[in-house]
Design brief:
This protein has 149 residues and is mostly helical. The protein is built from six helices and no strands. Helix content is 64%, strand content 0%.
Length: 149
């Protein structure tokens, strides 16, 4: 380990002690990695990459010594709560849509089922309008209008 590397680690540990004691000198005093890096005078990425063990140690000390949850963990927990609510809402919506599909399928079956009594006599039921497809707009000129429709 180089002397510079060892000096960074020493500064980081001293910064941890100051932040946990509430005696920040350089940073805003929040219990985050950003504040720790600023307090120690090291780049945040150096703390995250070269000294990840110290970052983990810092968060462990925050939990144990202050009985606080680190900010990153708080944000993650809030995100988890939001995502769980989204999942609950989506499940309810899916169930509602399934029920709607079932009702529409049944309604379609009822509406397309011929009425046995009147169709055997060649009569359409009174409450059913016969379906006549419209002529396609791209199929060319339409024929003469249907006198019944």
């Amino acid at each position: 380990m180089t002397q510079q590397h060892q000096n960074e680690r020493t500064r980081i540990r001293e910064a941890m002690d100051r932040l946990l004691a509430g005696q920040a000198t350089v940073s805003n005093g929040s219990l985050t990695v950003v504040a720790l890096a600023a307090e120690a005078g090291v780049h945040r990425m150096a703390l995250l990459k070269r000294h990840s063990d110290l970052k983990n140690e810092f968060y462990e000390r925050v939990r144990n010594e202050t009985r606080q949850i680190p900010e990153t963990e708080k944000r993650l927990r809030e995100t988890v709560v939001k995502l769980k609510q989204t999942i609950t809402n989506q499940r309810a919506e899916i169930e509602e849509l399934r029920q709607l599909v079932t009702r529409l399928t049944l309604a379609s079956a009822v509406l397309t089922q011929p009425d046995r009594g009147s169709t055997e006599a060649g009569l359409a039921p009174d409450n059913v309008v016969p379906f006549r497809p419209r002529a396609s707009r791209t199929a060319g000129p339409a024929g003469p209008p249907d006198p019944a429709g």
